[in-house]
Amino acid sequence: MTAYLQRQDRLALVTQATANVTGKRFCSHHQGEVSVTEGDFVLRNKSKRWICFRCQERSRQRRDALAKQVG
Asked: Where does the source fall among the domains of life (predicted)?
């Protein structure tokens, strides 16, 4: 147990174990539960977050629209 408490990735381990049991993950973008197969980890603001594909696509579309307006 001591080795577990000393690990820096405890939250990631618990999150992965929960996803393995329930088959769902929490989308850090829209704050809802989504099936594990409907998302992936993305690097945002120097941290790795799990975001569903729907939110990833919407973010990409928003970035593209802003790039068109500016450029």
From this structure: Bacteria
